[in-house]
């Protein structure tokens, strides 16, 4: 049973000017056994620091970290029963692939035949058997990536740690490796903690996703829940591409008012927004939940905005149409056949069942 | 605390020997020299004499002469040598890689010879008779032989000349590395803007090479403040103290007259000058050098 | 599309470089050529740019009158040992300062760095007393070696160099159950080979050419290094230019050969640890 548990974990760094910088704040979560959990967030959000604290490469300032049933606070990385795949692969450049794969096992004083067998098994799984006597610099990016994964597999650890492993690959290879990693997780039946800044990687790989920003966990949830029920504006804006649109509105008397439009809200929304009577709110709607008047996909035209089209991007599978509401630039993801030209005055329909409201101050989503 | 020490035990083991050696052979001597500058040194019972050494030093006309010589030497060599270095680097930069390497090697080569050998060779070349190498070269143009090292008017200049014509290889290599690091696109952009050759040089090349120039300037000043071997080998500070530099004076005071206290006092004046120069260095480089 | 201006610049460049190249090389050329001319014998004292008669006499006089073979051996021993100790300790400490975040790291390194500003003239007298009077190491290899086992400058250089190596490899090795010394020995040293070679070469040349400390710490002819011995020979026998040139050639030829053999390291090594950008 290899759960990974963070209990009130904090990490502070002291920079050159003796100023304390908090990299991770009061972090609490449990990663279940055999779960694939992805940490995602912008750079500097504390996701890599969290991973390194699990590995033992950084020491937390406060709090407890458990792997399996052990508190590992004081354990050396080698004693934590983990393996890690690094962003730059961190292959030992002067060793052959075989030596790279077996280095850890040799250090752990495993018998030679055991090492040989483990290296053979792992290299077969990853299709590296013909490369074992080469040096890392003779390998392609994708092959090096596999060696890095192989080095983790031979250790047969309880927890695999991945630190942005795909970010050095080109786009095509990245998609292919993503699929391979997902398959690998099924085969290994191990706990995987995976760090990335790429939300698509996070959504496709993670069973659960931890969204972080500025050292704080914003939300821990499944990909679908993150998309459908983001807890705050940060998560709403971070997950989904293009990001969710935000529109400043005022709520009054069961109506929301914004520049150029006002809607009477359905009854259940009115109940939820009672506390905001006369106050400002932020309305959030994803680009894919906006429709053109011409191709409505069955959305009623009860709720609509009319604005001048500023830019149209034709992506083939869809058209991204940009227009303004007040100060904010809004994106709509429309059907490729929809008629939208720059300068055209166009009516956009909102799928009101997919709309979120956020508190202006706390940026938290109001429960609808 | 104990836990912390144990976590980092290896780091401390790694620096242990160097730090111990540093304490014994660098830090202790510095402190000792400082104390000595207030003492009349004797192996068994040094005598505290307050500022007497400093008073003696500041009353000594040779001390002022040596400071002046050192200052003159520095001011007349460092900027000139940087200019020579820069021009040579600029010329080499025009060539193809193969020829760049060739000229880098040629310009660097004399730097592998020691100060002693170079001084010996120049001593021979400065031979004051008409058969001396430099004099016979001048004689070729109908000029009279010069008593290079043995008259006060030319002795210090001779030592300067030696540095002008010496190896500028290290500086050239640094300049070339920096020149190679200037993005080509900057010059292309300047071409599009119809910049003249001079404008490209003064607005792009020179400003972007400033860190290298400053580095050479400051290290050059520090080295030239300590000029010693050529003086020791060629003139012994003479004639009539014309080439007595501060470093040579310290050597003389300490190891010819065995006035350790006075020599220490003199060495701290040299330190003060170098520290001031170095502080200027750190001010200028704090953004460029990571430490 | 070579413009006229560019060709002119190229022409001026090549001309100037050839002239200055000759000027730079001439002292070395003259040293070598001078050591094959026996001006002492005909009492002319004149050294020509090309000898009328080639002679090995200056060399045999230099070796006959001095203990030059012994001096060369001394220099070889001292330079070799100091090269090894400097490379080992400077890389070890440089690695610790660059990559291991131990408490006190910045303070200790800062103190080391600050003392680099202090000129050798300051420490020389106490060092002299310490080594000669306290440790009683006059005229010994130990006395020649001890104060220079590892220099702060080399530690600084190695720290700069080590910080360019990827930290992730150290982390990977730590997870791979490698000991801390193992990380240094099995991972860092092999990766740092180019930098270590450069440091080794420059250390060797520096100590071979070093003059001031060997001058102070040695007294008997038998313990002189080649530089100190050569300087002493000059002061003892000022008029025999031929033999002096021969001695200078003997002292510098090993370094010139080394330079031609390892030119690449010399020329690229300069930029290691120097200014960035």
Descriptive account of the structure:
Chain B: InterPro entries: ABC_transporter_permease (IPR051393), MetI-like (IPR000515), MetI-like_sf (IPR035906). Chain B: It is a multi-pass membrane protein. Chain B: The chain crosses the membrane at residues 12-38, 71-93, 105-126, 156-178, 214-234, 264-282. Chain B: Keywords: Cell membrane, Membrane, Transmembrane, Transmembrane helix, Transport. Chain B: Residues 67-281 form the ABC transmembrane type-1 domain. The complex is a heterotrimer of chains A (368), B (291) and C (277). By secondary structure, chain A is of the alpha+beta class. Chain A has two domains: 4-238, Rossmann fold; 246-359, Nucleic acid-binding proteins (OB fold (Dihydrolipoamide Acetyltransferase, E2P), Beta Barrel), CATH 2.40.50. Helices cover 25% and strands 33% of the residues of chain A. Chain A has helices at residues 47-55, 97-107, 112-125, 141-154, 171-188, 199-205, 223-228, 233-238, 267-272; strands spanning 4-14, 20-31, 36-40, 62-67, 70-71, 82-85, 159-163, 191-196, 208-213, 216-221, 245-252, 255-258, 261-264, 280-285, 290-292, 304-314, 319-325, 328-334, 345-350, 356-359. Chain B has 291 residues and is mainly α. In chain B, 72% of the residues lie in helices and 1% in strands. Chain B has helices spanning 2-7, 9-36, 52-58, 61-93, 97-108, 115-125, 133-140, 152-164, 169-180, 184-192, 197-208, 210-225, 229-235, 246-255, 260-285, and strands at residues 39-40, 47-48. The mean pLDDT of chain C is 87. Chain C has a domain at 67-233: MetI-like (MetI-like fold, Orthogonal Bundle). Chain C contains 15 helices and no strands. Chain C has helices spanning 4-34, 39-42, 57-65, 68-99, 105-115, 120-134, 141-145, 152-162, 167-175, 180-191, 193-209, 212-217, 226-236, 241-261, 263-269. The radius of gyration of chain C is 24 Å and the shape is globular. In chain C, 45% of the residues are buried. Chains in contact: A-C, B-C.
């Amino acid at each position: 049973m290899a759960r990974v548990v963070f209990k009130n974990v904090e990490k502070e760094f002291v920079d050159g000017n003796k100023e304390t910088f908090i990299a991770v704040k009061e972090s609490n979560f449990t990663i279940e056994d055999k779960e694939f959990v992805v940490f995602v967030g912008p750079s500097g959000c504390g996701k890599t620091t969290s991973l390194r604290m699990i590995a033992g490469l950084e020491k937390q300032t406060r709090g407890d970290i458990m792997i399996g049933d052990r508190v590992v606070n004081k354990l050396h990385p080698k004693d934590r029963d983990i393996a890690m795949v690094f962003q730059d692969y961190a292959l030992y450049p002067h060793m052959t692939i075989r030596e790279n794969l077996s280095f850890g096992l040799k250090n752990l004083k495993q018998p030679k035949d055991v090492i040989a067998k483990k290296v053979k098994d792992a290299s077969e799984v990853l299709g590296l058997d013909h490369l074992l006597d080469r040096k890392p610099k003779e390998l392609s990016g994708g092959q090096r990536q596999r060696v890095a994964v192989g080095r983790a597999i031979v250790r047969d650890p309880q927890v695999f740690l991945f630190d942005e492993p795909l970010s050095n690959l080109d786009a095509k290879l990245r998609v292919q490796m993503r699929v391979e990693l997902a398959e690998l997780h099924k085969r290994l039946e191990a706990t995987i903690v995976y760090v990335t800044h790429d939300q698509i990687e996070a959504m496709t790989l993670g069973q659960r996703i931890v969204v972080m920003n500025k050292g704080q966990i914003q939300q821990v949830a499944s990909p679908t829940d993150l998309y459908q029920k983001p807890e705050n504006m940060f998560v709403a804006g971070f997950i989904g591409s293009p990001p969710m649109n935000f529109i400043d509105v005022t709520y009054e008397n069961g109506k929301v008012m914004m520049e150029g439009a006002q809607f009477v809200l359905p009854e259940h929304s009115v109940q939820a927004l009672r506390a905001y009577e006369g106050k400002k709110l932020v309305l959030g709607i994803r680009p894919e939940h906006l429709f053109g008047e011409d191709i409505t996909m069955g959305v009623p035209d009860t709720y609509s905005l009319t604005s001048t089209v500023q830019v149209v991007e034709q992506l083939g599978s869809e058209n991204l149409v940009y227009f303004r509401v007040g100060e904010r630039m809004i994106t709509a993801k429309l059907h490729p056949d929809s008629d939208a030209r720059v300068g055209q005055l166009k009516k956009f329909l909102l799928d009101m069942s997919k709309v979120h409201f956020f508190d202006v101050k706390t940026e938290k989503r109001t429960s609808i | 605390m104990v836990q912390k020490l144990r976590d980092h035990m290896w780091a401390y083991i790694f620096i242990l020997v160097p730090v111990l050696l540093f304490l014994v052979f660098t830090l202790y001597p510095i402190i000792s020299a400082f104390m000595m500058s207030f003492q009349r040194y004797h192996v068994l019972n040094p005598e505290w004499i307050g500022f007497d050494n400093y008073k003696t030093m500041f009353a000594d006309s040779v001390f002022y002469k040596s400071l002046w010589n050192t200052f003159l030497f520095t001011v007349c060599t460092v900027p000139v040598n940087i200019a020579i270095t820069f021009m040579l680097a600029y010329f080499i930069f025009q060539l193809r890689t193969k020829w760049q390497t060739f000229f880098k090697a040629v310009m660097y080569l004399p730097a592998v010879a020691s100060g002693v050998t170079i001084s010996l060779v120049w001593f021979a070349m400065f031979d004051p008779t008409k058969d001396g190498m430099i004099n016979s070269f001048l004689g070729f143009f109908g000029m009279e032989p010069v008593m290079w090292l043995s008259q006060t008017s030319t002795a210090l200049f001779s030592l300067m000349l030696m540095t002008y014509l010496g190896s500028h290889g290290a500086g050239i290599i640094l300049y070339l590395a920096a020149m190679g690091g200037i993005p080509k696109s900057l010059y292309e952009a300047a071409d599009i803007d119809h910049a003249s050759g001079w404008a490209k040089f003064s607005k792009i090349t020179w400003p972007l090479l400033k860190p290298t120039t400053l580095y050479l300037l400051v290290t050059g000043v520090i080295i030239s403040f300590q000029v010693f071997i050529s003086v020791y080998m060629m003139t012994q500070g003479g004639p009539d103290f014309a080439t007595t530099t501060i470093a040579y004076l310290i050597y003389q005071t300490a190891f010819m007259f065995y006035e350790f206290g006075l020599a220490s006092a003199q060495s701290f004046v040299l330190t003060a000058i170098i520290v001031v120069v170095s502080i200027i260095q750190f001010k200028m480089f704090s953004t460029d050098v990571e430490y | 599309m070579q413009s006229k201006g560019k060709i002119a610049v190229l022409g001026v460049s090549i001309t100037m470089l050839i002239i200055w190249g000759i000027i730079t090389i001439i002292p070395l050329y003259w040293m070598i050529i001078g050591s094959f001319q026996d001006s002492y014998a005909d009492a002319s004292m004149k050294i020509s740019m090309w000898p009328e008669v080639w002679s090995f006499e200056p060399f045999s006089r230099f070796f006959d009158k001095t203990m030059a073979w012994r001096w060369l051996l001394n220099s070889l021993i001292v330079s070799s040992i100091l090269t090894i100790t400097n490379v080992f300790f400077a890389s070890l400490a440089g690695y610790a300062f660059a990559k291991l975040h131990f408490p006190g790291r910045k303070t200790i390194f800062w103190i080391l760095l600050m003392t680099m500003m202090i000129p050798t003239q300051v420490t020389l007298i106490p060092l002299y007393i310490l080594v000669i009077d306290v440790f009683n190491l006059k005229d010994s290899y130990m006395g020649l070696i001890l104060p220079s086992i590892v220099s702060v400058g080399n530690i600084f250089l190695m720290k700069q160099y080590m910080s360019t190596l990827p930290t992730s490899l150290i982390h990977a090795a730590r997870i791979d159950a490698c000991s801390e010394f193992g990380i240094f020995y099995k991972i860092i040293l092999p990766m740092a080979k180019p930098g270590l070679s450069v440091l080794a070469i420059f250390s060797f040349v520096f100590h071979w050419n070093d003059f001031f400390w060997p001058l102070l710490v040695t007294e008997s002819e038998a313990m002189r290094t080649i530089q100190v011995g050569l300087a002493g020979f000059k002061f003892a026998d000022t008029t025999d230019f031929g033999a002096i040139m021969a001695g200078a050639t003997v002292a510098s030829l090993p370094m010139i050969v080394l330079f031609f053999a390892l030119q690449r390291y010399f020329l690229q090594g300069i930029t290691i640890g120097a200014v960035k950008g």
